[in-house]
Amino acid sequence: MGTFINKIVYNLFTFDEPDSVGAKLQLRFVEGYVIIYSYYYMWSWGYYIPRLSELVLPLGMANYIPVELFYDYNLSVYAALFYTIFTLIAFNSKKYRWLYALSFLLFHLQYVVRFSQGEIPHSTNLFGFTLLGLGLGGAFIKGIRNQLIFAFGLTIFFAGLGYTSAAISKLVARGIFWVDGNHLWLWIGEKKIDRLAKFGEFEYTFMQELALRSRTIATSVLIFGFVAEICAVLMFFKKYRWIFVSALVALHFGIYMTMNIFFSAATWLLVIIGFPWDYWINRSSLASVLNSNSFIMKYILYQDEPVTDPDQREEV
């Protein structure tokens, strides 16, 4: 059991692997993507929160602190402003990366204030876990590379755990009958009513028509989605990660084609963290171009000297 856990930890947190341009670029791209996309959340929540007037369903820390203050004093806008400042400083410095910890607290607080209204979405959770990893890494781990590896591994861990937990919750709710195609027919019908009410018109997609044509096809669609979720924890293993992430990406596009719902932010984050971009970059001409650019290597990829050896690591 101990060996199995050690193997999972080794695959998630690859501190001992050889350094490379590709690994650095992938890690920094994950960091930049999460920070830039989180600005959309923070500022949209920041301008929405002052429109609220009542705390409906306290969420998390909203049970312990007076979050109603955010409704009257534009505190949510100031929170978004400080979040932006902190993350910009942390991203562009080596000394003040502990500011990610404060940034995470602001992000979580803004989320709690915004969604203490009886509706609790989960689309931003993956971003929150990445920020948590950056915050813990910046505060307690030495070296930008190791900090980013920790945040990267923590994101993969909670992504796999989250999707598999979702599959288990489906089993708890409906058992093996959750994959019954009748359920998909019902959800498509509900989505049709929603879109008719919102837009005044509705047109079936190819995937919806296909699912409505046969209960067997509808059931097969749900079976694929369920299997993709229940197997998500297997993304912990780096060698096979791209297979299970590909299934989850296909799941999200399937949801979009059948339910007109697309979790774009989380889906593209899965694409960034789930495929061996470091391996592909190291074996492309881009690696030598980046390695020869001292500015990029020093200020973007946090390296004083260019990396000369591509990543030749062994998969576990």
Characterize the structure shown:
The chain is an all-alpha fold and 316 residues long. 68% of the residues lie in helices and 0% in strands. The protein contains 15 helices and no strands. It has helices at 2-12, 21-48, 69-72, 75-91, 99-114, 125-140, 144-174, 181-199, 206-213, 215-230, 241-259, 264-274, 277-282, 285-291, 294-300. α5 packs antiparallel against α6 (125-140). The radius of gyration is 22 Å and the shape is globular. The two termini are 17 Å apart. Mean pLDDT is 89; it is low at 304-316.
User: How is the main sheet built?
Assistant: none
Rg: 22 Å
**Number of distinct beta strands:** 0
- The helix/strand order is HHHHHHHHHHHHHHH
Structural class: mainly alpha
What is the approximate shape? globular
Write the layout of secondary structure elements.
Layout: H1 2-12, H2 21-48, H3 69-72, H4 75-91, H5 99-114, H6 125-140, H7 144-174, H8 181-199, H9 206-213, H10 215-230, H11 241-259, H12 264-274, H13 277-282, H14 285-291, H15 294-300
Helix pairs in contact: 2-4, 2-5, 2-6, 2-7, 2-12, 4-5, 5-6, 6-7, 7-10, 8-10, 9-10, 9-11, 10-11, 11-12
